[in-house]
Amino acid sequence: MILLSLLFCILMLVVLITWVKANAFLSFVCVAIVAGLLLGVPAGNIMQSVNKGIGDSLGSVVAVIIFGAMLGKIVAESGAAHQISGFMRKIFGSKYIHYGMALTGLIIGIPLYYNVGFILAIPVIFSVAYQYKLPSVFVGLPMLTALSVMHGFVPPHPSPMTLIGIFHADLNKTFLYGLIISIPTIIIAGPVFAGRFRHFVQANNISLLSTPQASYEQLPGVLNSIISSLLPVILIAFANLVPMLVPGNGVLVLMVRFFGDPVVAMLITLVFTTISLGILQGKRVVEVMNCYTSAIKDISMILLIIGSAGALKQIFIDSRLSLELGEMLAGYAFNPLILAWVTTALLRVCLGSATVAGLTAAGILYPLAAHQGVNPNLLVLSIGAGSLFGSHVNDSAFWLYKEYFHLTLKETFKSWTAMESMVAVLGLCGVLLLDFIT
């Protein structure tokens, strides 16, 4: 009966989001209430669970996600990301330009959310393709691969950041493991896979190939652009290196860990970029603040989805569904990391959104966190990898890619869907390899 109730709730969520086209936040809240009634949570306690789930999910990640959105916005609007892409273009030249595009996607993909990064990348991709007389798919796929991998694997992106809070994973280790897995995944699914499209001939004429590069009144320097984008990574990495280099210095370690805390690191970065990418580039403080306000508007729905997914997770916990599922799973001999990946991949195919699939899976897979021998950092990455599998017609990113690149459905499946599925499978392989090594 419990499994039937769980399956009914998942099916209801899928139908509401994909068929009814209901708002994801409303869908999660409605399903959470129905789940509470079906699973025997007292009617008077259901909204308490919903409120607690929303608060707990947002409380641990909201500051980092908002700061990350602000950083991504100013990196994009100041032209810093454009400077980075131009610098990579000069270094790699025409022969290895697809590797340069992948590296650019990796660097700007750390602070930029996927949708922002995609829109920002389009004029760069088309101008490079036009300049070197190369197919736009060959040039663009490596950069989009890197953006997608960063979105699914690496904090402070919403899904991995929220999963870290749910499974009580270590942010620094998850970030490090995520980068270790991301680099070979990006290389294989990006430049290597894109190589098959070097001589690709598109059936449709792409007028956007002649799009000029984006123009900015005053571009920041290349070094400034790179440091501004990567400063949170630098601060967090430094905070982890100091205790190893200077063991026993308690005061120094405490200070460094304070500045390496993700919220503090992001806040320091914002202060730095406000000056380096804002004031020093001729912008007034009010203009920079307006940029930050716009960034919050861009991610408001993402935050609501994170909160409402937490509500459903809390219903599963308070109804003791998670406990019973955990006892059930403990009786089977299978790798929980593979189970997490398969569950999330199925939800991704059904729901379309990688973020929604990952957060939905978290509520179902919560008992795995207590499974003996499961590394919570790798569990986060396994779910992140599964959430990228099989992007198709119910995913907005699928249509963005198809329409911007003027591809047929068949061409989109052969390039975009294949790349996303490859990323998911390679991500799982990386997770299992790290699990074996560690």
Automatic annotation (TrEMBL):
PANTHER family named in the record: GNT FAMILY GLUCONATE TRANSPORTER, HIGH-AFFINITY GLUCONATE TRANSPORTER
Protein name according to UniProt: Gnt-I system high-affinity gluconate transporter
Membrane topology: Multi-pass membrane protein
UniProtKB keywords: Cell membrane, Membrane, Transmembrane, Transmembrane helix, Transport
NCBIfam families xrefs: gntP
Family: Belongs to the GntP permease family.
Annotated TM spans: 26-46, 58-76, 96-122, 134-154, 174-194, 222-242, 262-280, 301-317, 337-366, 378-401, 421-437
Subcellular location: Cell membrane
Pfam family, one: GntP_permease
Main localisation: membrane
InterPro entries with a match to the protein in the record: Glcn_transporter
Domain of life: Bacteria
